[in-house]
Amino acid sequence: MTAKLKITGGNPLCGSVAISGAKNAALPALFACLLTEEPCELGNLPQLRDIKSALAVLSAMGAEHSDANGKTVVNAARLRTTVAPYQLVKTMRASVLALGPLLARAGEATVSLPGGCVIGARPVDMHIAGFEKMGAEIQIQNGNIVARAKRLRGANIKLPQPTVTGSENLMMAAALAEGITVLENAAREPEITDLAVFLNAMGADISGAGESTITIRGVDRLHSAKHFVMPDRIEAGTYLCAAAACGGDVFLENADLSHLSALAEKLRECGAEVLNCNDSGDDGDDGDDGDGDGDGNSENKKRGARITMHNRPRAVDAVTAPYPGYPTDLQAQWMAVNCVAEGCATITETVFENRFMHAPELARMGADIELRGNAARVRGVASLSGAPVMATDIRASAALVVAALAARGTSEIDRIYHLERGYATMEKKLRALGANAERK
Ligand code: UD1
């Protein structure tokens, strides 16, 4: 029997939770440790299944790791093999991020092709074409990507569309290549900037990360470095959506709203008040400091984001797009908010095909959703009702959690191993917000 999450909903969410380190920044940072024979220290790694999967891939390659005081030290002094086996890669597509670092450091890499997944075909052709442009010879053999290059050469690579892990993979490989690589039409997600910060701390020479053109001047070797992983904007966004759907007053410690501008705009349109609160910022501090209302003073001294929502949300459309557009990883959660909103909204998915697996499950809770190709028309209902539902991927599960929190009655979300790939101790965090949530 797989683990389930039992939620009895219908109450507003109130209180404070700490947002963990970003899964999608931690994963490339872990694989980047393969680029040097010196140990690297990573702080703020989230406690997630995907992180364990990445560490298992690193271990299989001979990289050792140890944990102390909330930090993880990865030591890839000796590589036992440059082969990432299917058994490990199939559990997590992001294992393809081993390819760039191994190829650049060891001159060869064999990584199993990740294959399709529930949210679409998700090919890695742009990663492969980029490595080839840098002089690698690549073959697909027995379901593996087999790559070889004596030394990668810098190249001008124009990506046909922004790919997040593709940009990261090529950036890591280019860091140790001979000459300059210019990556055009690169993805601009904050996780790419976070990786560039770490690589530069290791001695790389990268500029332009976070913009469409990234320039990487190759260096001969990289060295030991420390890095503190950025907060998880998708985890934060999920709790913001939950508060918008249920109402309440929630403080998300460590969250950085500047990474979530597209969502913040939607939340304000739907009737929520959203503030970025940080030590130096004027955004969330004014009105709280010294006004004597006792309204979250101690919380607002901490860095984070705060949402207050007093009414039923208003329906608001969303169209997913690469950063800084509305994130595909928050599409399902936004659909859940709209299921209980006043009015009708259209949610359009442009990044991945087949990413509406949550819609039929939401319908089982009483949601009114009509799917038409890559668009979902959602007519808000006055209330959802709890039901047994099934998780299909990380973010689809998160949408079911948001809906279950807003619904009347009890829901049991099955297959939460999907959820646990991306959300650390969710039931505990939800209980800290006053929700009735239990892992079974
Ligand atoms: C990353 C994130 C994932 C997020 C996605 C989009 C990680 C570990 N995962 O996934 O959570 O949902 O970005 O924000 O960071 N594509 C190709 N060929 C390629 C590569 C991509 O056609 O070689 C297509 C994909 O099918 C998709 C689009 O490009 O339609 C964007 O995908 P991409 O940015 O690569 O997603 P991931 O990096 O896999």
Describe this structure in words.
By secondary structure, the protein is α/β, with parallel strands linked by helices. It folds into 2 domains: 226 residues, UDP-n-acetylglucosamine1-carboxyvinyl-transferase, Chain, CATH 3.65.10; 206 residues, UDP-n-acetylglucosamine1-carboxyvinyl-transferase, Chain. It has 14 helices and 24 strands. The strands form 6 sheets. A 4-stranded mixed β-sheet has the order 22-23-1-24. Strands 2-15-17-16 form a 4-stranded mixed β-sheet. Helix 6 links the parallel strand 10 and strand 11. The radius of gyration is 22 Å and the shape is elongated. The N and C termini lie close together (10 Å). About 4% of the residues have low confidence. The structure holds uridine-diphosphate-N-acetylglucosamine. The site of uridine-diphosphate-N-acetylglucosamine (UD1) has 21 residues, from helix 1, helix 5 and helix 6.
* Poorly predicted tracts of residues: 281-297
Q: Can you name the CATH architecture of the largest domain?
A: Alpha-beta prism
Strand tally: 24
- Assembly context of the chains: single chain
> What is the topology, as strand order, of the major beta sheet?
22-23-1-24
Q: According to CATH, what is the class of the largest domain? A: Alpha Beta
Could you say how many structural domains there are in total?
Answer: 2
Percent strand equals 15-25%
**Total helical elements:** 14
Structure class: alpha/beta
Major beta sheet, specifics?
Answer: 4 strands, mixed
Q: Find the CATH topology of the largest domain.
A: UDP-n-acetylglucosamine1-carboxyvinyl-transferase, Chain
Q: What is the assigned CATH homologous superfamily of the largest domain?
A: Enolpyruvate transferase domain
The N- to C-terminal Cα distance equals: 10 Å
Instruction: Give the overall shape, derived from the CA principal axes.
Output: elongated
Bound molecules: uridine-diphosphate-N-acetylglucosamine
Provide the gyration radius in Å.
22 Å
